[in-house]
Write a structure and sequence with these properties.
By secondary structure, the chain is an alpha/beta fold. The chain has three domains: 172 residues, D-Maltodextrin-Binding Protein, domain 2, CATH 3.40.190; 162 residues, Periplasmic binding protein-like II (D-Maltodextrin-Binding Protein, domain 2, 3-Layer(aba) Sandwich); 65 residues, no CATH class. The protein is 39% helix and 10% strand. The strands form three sheets. The protein has a four-stranded mixed sheet, with helices on both faces. Strands 6-7-5-8 form a four-stranded mixed sheet. Strands 9-4-11 form a three-stranded antiparallel sheet. Helix 9 crosses helix 18 and helix 18 runs antiparallel to helix 19. It is globular and about 75 Å long. The relative contact order is 0.16. The N terminus and C terminus are likely disordered.
């Protein structure tokens, strides 16, 4: 009788333990938008695991209903839901999920709320080797957990400095190198910029499709200023903070480079359309004629994995692309600031996952995260050309080529501003306070106002906008010069 009773008791214990047995178990994964029937999510993360573990059933729990506003916008007067708060409701609910799939900006809030299990103990116990995980991923995650790991991410994307060797060869200037500061890179850009009009070669652009408009530069220079962690407004969104020496230096730098024609100049789009039509009529249309880097008129730009892939494909197909000349190129790390030597560019962590501190099945949750972040999964997913796996061993140049692939993962991501993220979720129109700054930047770049005067004006108008936003969070902000309403332009 004792022996008979012992067997089911052990089986019951093992069912919740996640041990490698054949008992049926459920692993619940919480996501922000992916639903139970989301094909992409299952293909990307769960199908291989389910195939290897047929006794573990995956349930996907979505914090937000992806079809909620599919057939119509949010009804007037309905309060906007905060995805992060909805996620926390699920995490702390009566049937808590085991694994949490989150965005990078959610991680600090979940850590500070003690909602994630620290992974270091499991990592040590299982001797799970993370020495090959790139700094862009591992250091970025640790920086939000006071040196501890509360999540892991199997893939990531980042930025590099992409350059065309020809302008440097023509000018007798050395190529860019890893570890440059922004000032060093801008100096190189000045030395290779030459020519006039249609024959000009520009030194640098934040976007290879950018044509030097003041609006583009205002938003794109965020890549330059973000590592400096300059804020537009205070933690509680009560006051603007742009009337400062830091912002003045950033604007002066951008405006000076624009005046020196280091950045591409504005283009007459009416003429561009005429040139495009004529090229198409003659059968000599170049699909890259609007891409300042691909058409050879730009020495350096910011590149991503997809732009590198496009460049490789174009060079391979150059013989069939009329008007296109193959580009001899390479990449280096993003420029950095002396104040943040190892921080550069935007890094997006894809598939960032942690274990719920209240997980019902923590053992299988760790088994899943360990599998998705392990070598076998990395080796398989490294075949994809549009994502980078987090393990350096499997990040290799494409097709046996030789280029500086380490540039993608040698720097840390820009530190996450938890309070700022909360404000952007809390106030739907706060982006307009940023957008209105473009009007004052335009005055400074056109010389109708000094940089500091323009920043002071933005500070004053922004204070009024924040006050209005606090009093009526859902109403459009209306404090622009002339009394017009600002446009809600999304943050880049």
């Amino acid at each position: 009788m004792i022996a008979t009773l012992t067997v089911p008791i052990l089986a019951a214990c093992n069912k919740g333990s996640g041990a490698d047995d054949k008992t049926e178990r459920v692993l619940r994964i919480a996501t922000q938008y992916y639903g139970e029937e989301d094909e992409y999510f299952r293909q990307q993360f769960t199908e291989i695991f389910e195939y290897n573990n047929p006794n573990i059933k995956i349930e996907i729990v979505s914090a937000m209903n992806p079809d909620q506003y599919r057939y119509g916008g949010r009804p007037e007067g309905e309060k906007r839901e905060d995805p992060n708060e909805k996620m926390k409701e699920i995490i702390n609910g009566p049937n808590p999920p085991d694994v949490i799939l989150m965005n990078y900006d959610q991680l600090p809030d979940l850590i500070s709320g003690n909602m994630l299990k620290q992974l270091d103990t499991d990592i040590t116990k299982d001797k799970f080797d993370l020495s090959d995980v790139v700094p862009a991923v591992i250091d970025g995650i640790k920086s939000l957990g006071d040196g501890k790991l509360f999540a892991l991410a199997p893939t990531f994307s980042s930025q590099v400095l992409l350059y065309n060797k020809k302008p440097f060869d023509d000018a007798g200037v050395q190529y860019p190198k890893d570890g440059m500061t922004w000032d060093e890179m801008f100096d190189l850009a000045r030395r290779v910029s030459k020519g006039e009009g249609e024959n000009r070669v520009y030194g640098f652009s934040f976007n290879q499709y950018s044509y030097g408009s003041k609006e583009n530069l205002f938003y794109e220079m965020g890549t330059y200023s973000a590592p400096l962690q300059l804020r537009m407004f205070s933690d509680n969104a009560e006051k603007m903070t742009v009337d400062s020496d830091g912002w003045e230096k950033v604007w002066n730098t951008m405006i000076q480079l624009s005046k020196e024609k280091i950045f591409p100049e504005p283009v007459d789009y009416s003429k561009m359309d005429a040139v495009r039509r004529a090229a198409m009529d003659s059968g000599e249309y170049n699909p890259f004629q609007n891409n300042t880097f691909m058409n050879g008129k730009l020495a350096m730009t910011i590149g991503q994995q997809y732009s590198i892939n496009e460049l490789i494909r174009a060079n391979k197909s150059a013989a069939s692309i009329k008007g296109y000349t193959p580009i001899d190129w390479d990449i280096v790390t993003m420029p950095t600031h002396p104040e943040a030597k190892d921080v550069g560019g935007n890094v997006y962590l894809n598939g960032l996952m942690g274990i719920n501190a209240k997980a019902q099945n923590p053992a299988d949750a760790w088994k899943f995260i360990k599998f998705i972040n392990g070598e076998d999964w990395a080796r398989l997913k490294s075949k994809s050309v549009n994502q980078l796996v987090s393990r350096a061993k499997y990040i290799q140049p494409r097709e046996g080529m030789q280029y500086n692939i380490k540039a993608f993962y040698s720097l840390k991501p820009v530190p996450m501003e938890n309070e700022m993220s909360k404000l952007y979720r809390q106030y739907q129109n706060i982006g307009q306070v940023n957008s209105m700054g473009m009007q004052y930047f335009k005055k400074a770049i056109e010389g109708t106002s000094t940089v500091r005067e323009a920043l002071k004006e933005w500070q004053t108008a922004g204070d009024a906008a924040l006050k209005q936003m606090k009093e009526n969070p859902d109403a459009p902000i209306n404090v622009m010069p002339g009394g017009g309403k600002t446009m809600a332009i999304p943050m880049g």
